[in-house]
Amino acid sequence: VACDRTVITHEPTVEQKAEVNVEAKQLVAAKAAALIQPEDFVYLDAGTTTELMIDYIQSKTATFVTNAVTHAKKLSEIGCSVYILGGEFKASTEAIVGDEAVSSLEKYNFTKGFWGTNGVSVTKGFSTPDIKEAMIKKKSMENCMDCYVLCDSSKFSKLSCVSFAPFESATVLTTRLEEDIYRNYKNVVEVEA
After folding, report:
1. Residue 1: what pLDDT?
2. What's the whole-model pTM score?
């Protein structure tokens, strides 16, 4: 098992994240979008890779729930049915968070869901720096049949302040891994051009 060498304690802004590993994020986003079927009821987490997915969505009859204002707008513009969670707006990540948003997730049962992460660890799972965002991710994953975490390979062996799900709880769509140890896990899928 690889060591968690880097601990991430702060959250970069959406603008900062959008500039990093763009080609890798596009590959992962395209693969993820191809998994959406016409009758799916999809949770789409806030994040730059999940936002890129919207450009590749072919199944316009799927229904989406998101905690990202930007995602909701883009999904609506391409003709998808979309619901947005209510709650506190976190400007740096452009996400809806907080107790109200967690409560509103109680009623939903998703067929598929797609989440971003700041860190991937076999022992500590998926993590993010913010407790409020972690609680949204945790609750939405608990209410989902097929969970997918989207990240480029730079997120592996990184740990952030708050874990939101165990490593085995989702299929990880990622780019070419630098550490061979992760290739031994059946829930890790490397996406190539």
Report:
1. 43
2. 0.90
